[in-house]
Specification:
Its cofactor is Mg(2+). Pfam families: PGM_PMM_I, PGM_PMM_II, PGM_PMM_III, PGM_PMM_IV. This protein is of the alpha/beta class and 451 residues long. The protein is built from 14 helices and 22 strands. Helices cover 35% and strands 22% of the residues. The protein starts with 12 loop residues before the first strand and ends with a helix.
Length: 451
């Protein structure tokens, strides 16, 4: 019996092609997914990114699905949020072949039920793993069929219908697709808008020849920052490999915090739906719930991770959710995450007024933050307890353990310390009134963790 625990993650399947993932195994995953969703739907929609291994693995998955009597709708090259659009608009379960920002040797499968409802460990992924490990039963009936369908134009039209840019002033925007799927979707989505796009690395290339397609790492947006300043652009946008996350830089080439983007988009969504609920995870700036409440919304705090965000959105009927990892979730997009829709909101807000993006976003950036700082540790639990003991005895300190350890200090500073689910790491996020206070708290906590 194979042990698949190394590649079946919390939210998806991911591994090194040829070592951990091959066509035969992926075929079994497709058959197991078909067995899981067979009572719910007659077909599965499948998309894939630009990695060399993606078309073949997507075809193997389709073979597994059809072997169980279900049909396949293949949308071919797609961003992950384009696959979610297909799942939502066609009301079909879906599978997306991508390893997001991971290096070229990796690939993976993100799966969802009809309406882009996520499939994670607790919502079917463990069951799929068990089925494959124990051996997928053969189906004696008629095989399903495979049809091809291009949904890119419909996806683009749907997004443009959600954000009105018709009254925007002309904007010049640099877009760094990182040789990922943004190079596939941006030209169609932005067609006809009052936006001049200066493209960077739009050539689809799963070897990522220019830089890693992970815009949260500062070294991967250096080219974008330089180009924005060089051409005098109004803003820059960087997408990750599967283009479901977006990262924004302003006209100076300075990064805009994803928390500020969350607050900006939340305010725009609340203008359409006054009093609505906005989800934010617990490492998002405390400025987000403050701004949401000031605009009449109901902020709700969750654990980190898209399964928690989507579950809480469903439970509360939330209109929008944001994470500090630059994932943005919209009720009007089947509660799925789409960086493209968030980017359109930012551009609409920018184009509705005459000031620069730095001035616009400064109203949503209230505090200084450290960003995520990772430390390799042998014993995560012991180090967490040491930090808890060090701060828990201080007057006025509040501690909660919703996700790791969140410590609120008198005067408003706070930090969160969380263990990684997959690596021997502790992840630290600190926020305070200014950069000096942030650095002081970072130094204090790291002294305990790394001692």
């Amino acid at each position: 019996m194979p042990d698949l625990s190394g590649i079946v993650k919390a939210y998806d399947i991911r591994g090194v092609v040829g070592e951990q993932l091959d066509a035969a195994l992926v075929r079994d995953f497709g058959a197991a997914f078909a067995l899981l969703i067979k009572p719910e739907a007659p077909s599965v929609v499948i998309g894939h990114d630009m990695r060399d291994s993606s078309p073949g693995l997507a075809a193997a998955f389709a073979e597994g699905v059809t072997s169980q009597g279900l049909d396949v709708v293949s949308i071919g090259l797609a961003s992950t949020d384009q696959l979610y659009f297909a799942s939502g608009s066609l009301n079909l379960p879906g599978a997306m072949f991508t390893a997001s920002h991971n290096p070229a040797k990796y690939n993976g499968i993100k799966m969802c039920r009809a309406g882009a409802s996520p499939v994670g460990q607790d919502t079917g992924l463990a069951e799929i793993r068990d089925t494959v490990e124990q051996g997928v039963p053969e189906f004696e009936g008629q095989r399903g069929t495979i049809t091809e369908r291009d949904v890119l134009a419909d996806y683009a039209a749907y997004l443009r219908n959600l954000v009105d840019l018709s009254g925007s002033r002309p904007l010049k925007i640099v877009v760094d697709a990182g040789n990922g799927m943004g190079g596939h979707t941006v030209p169609t989505v932005f067609e006809g808008l009052p936006i001049e796009v200066v493209p960077m690395y739009f050539e689809l290339d799963g070897s990522f020849p220019n830089h890693e397609a992970n815009p949260l790492d500062p070294k991967n947006i250096v080219d974008l920052q330089a180009k924005v300043r060089e051409v005098g652009a109004d803003a820059g946008i960087a997408f990750d490999g599967d283009a479901d996350r977006c990262f924004i830089v302003d006209e100076r080439g300075e990064p805009v915090s994803p928390s500020a983007i969350t607050a900006l988009v939340a305010v725009r969504e609340l203008a359409k739906d006054p009093g609505g609920t906005i989800i934010h995870n617990l490492i998002t700036s405390k400025g987000v719930p403050e701004i949401v409440a000031e605009h009449g919304g109901k902020p709700v705090r969750t654990r980190v991770g898209h399964s928690f965000i989507k579950a809480e959105m469903a439970r509360t009927g939330a209109i929008f959710g944001g994470e500090h990892s630059a994932h943005y979730y919209f009720r009007d997009f089947w509660r799925a995450d789409t960086g493209m829709l968030a980017a359109l909101h930012v551009l609409a807000a920018l184009g509705e007024q005459n000031g620069p993006l730095s001035e616009l976003t400064s109203a949503y950036s209230r505090y200084a933050a450290s960003g995520e700082i990772n430390s390799t540790v042998d014993d995560q639990v012991a180090k967490m307890m040491a930090v808890k003991d060090a701060f828990g005895t201080r007057s006025g300190v509040e501690i909660d353990e919703l996700d790791g350890l969140t410590v609120q200090l008198p005067g408003g500073a706070w930090f969160n310390l969380r263990p990684s689910n997959t690596e021997p790491l502790l992840r630290l996020n600190v926020e305070a009134a200014n950069a000096e206070a942030v650095q002081g708290l970072v130094d204090e906590v790291l002294a305990i963790i790394r001692s």
